[in-house]
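ugh ok fine here u go
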Amino acid sequence: MVRVGISGSIALITIGAILAFGVTASVGWLDVSIVGWVFMVAGVIGLILSLSFWRTRPKEVLTHVPARDFKVVEEKKTEIKPPDKD
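structure:
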């Protein structure tokens, strides 16, 4: 099974709309507006399937945090003296 995806479905709908509403030609036995309608229907079906796939996908849950090595760093404290007034 080929997964078209959201962008591919939108592209099919767009191309189908252009063929169905923008082109008035007929090539031999092939009616271009019918092909456009078929593309639009396929794009809508692909869009619905893609959205349902993304909605039902498992969400990754972090159940274990790996241990990390922490280093102890020495702190140096220095006093900052205010400047003397003249």
